[in-house]
Write a structure and sequence with these properties.
By secondary structure, this protein is α/β, with parallel strands linked by helices. It folds into two domains: about 5-15 and about 100-250, Rossmann fold (3-Layer(aba) Sandwich), CATH 3.40.50.1000; about 20-95, Putative phosphatase, domain 2 (DNA polymerase, domain 1, Orthogonal Bundle). The chain is about 40% helix and about 10% strand. It has helices spanning about 20-30, 40-45, 55-65, 75-95, 105-115, 125-135, 160-170, 185-195, 245-250, and strands spanning about 5-10, 115-120, 145-150, 180, 195-200, 215-220, 230. It has a seven-stranded mixed sheet with strand order 3-2-1-4-5-6-7. Strand 4 (about 180), helix 8 (about 185-195) and strand 5 form a beta-alpha-beta unit. Helix 1 (about 20-30) packs across helix 4 (about 75-95), helix 3 packs across helix 4 and helix 4 (about 75-95) runs parallel beside helix 6 (about 125-135). The longest helix is centred in the N-terminal third of the chain and has 21 residues, at about 75-95. The radius of gyration is 18 Å and the shape is globular. Bound molecules: xylulose-1,5-bisphosphate and magnesium ion (MG). Magnesium ion binds near residues 9, 12 and 187.
Length: about 250
Amino acid sequence: MALQALIFDVDGTLANTERDGHRVAFNLAFQEFGLEWDWDVDLYGKLLAVTGGKERIRYFVDSFLSGYIKPADFDDMVAKLHKTKTRHYTEMLSGGRIPARPGVRRLLEEARQAGLRLAIATTTTPDNVTALLKYSLAEDAVDWFEVIAAGDIVPAKKPAPDIYFWALEKMKLDPAECLAFEDSENGLKSSLGAGIKTLVTINDYTTDHEFPGALAVLSDLGEPGQACQVFSGDLHGKGYVDVDLLRQWHESA
Ligand code: XBP
Ligand code: MG
């Protein structure tokens, strides 16, 4: 089957949002609620084992906060905390503080020109996706994507494949007609679980992850004159990922 569509993860893949974005926003929300919780860079790396912000707060309370007695309205508290965190995060993005990763804008533009269909499959909140696309890519970047599968639209978040199945269903595409882009072990499990061949670009939080079954594992997508590092896979002599290379990988794998 010919390549028809590219499906992108968001956090860690389109931009390095976790350490200086989401983490900081969680901490600002905790402060606003008068909580003495502070997620430092190392702790946040451990918390990333669980996808989804609300799920991550619960995981922190259950696994890292011994002795904490949950209030009767704990569920409500988590929901409010998370809403506040989303406000802080989208405000941060609107200040243009988090740029797209190397090669992302170039590859998206090239893919559009080549007539490939584009989609997003992420566990993050929809508002976060639209803000990131607008402020880190382009004013109209939301319109570049035919489907944005995000947040709680499926109950089982990554590593479950459900979010990819949802996107495929909306696009009426077979997994064999797509390629996915991920940055983490949980993300790769999700996309491969949906039967989609996947390229991995790692980041600081995912360098130690295992990526069995990935088409290639790279430092980033690279740019002309700014070659990416290749950890596995064959770039056929190129220093960066382009549509031609994606088609080769799609056909050969
Ligand atoms: C990353 C996530 C998200 C973000 C926080 O998802 O797990 O939970 O860390 O966003 P992906 P929310 O890499 O699949 O985009 O607080 O909105 O959940
Ligand atoms: Mg990710």
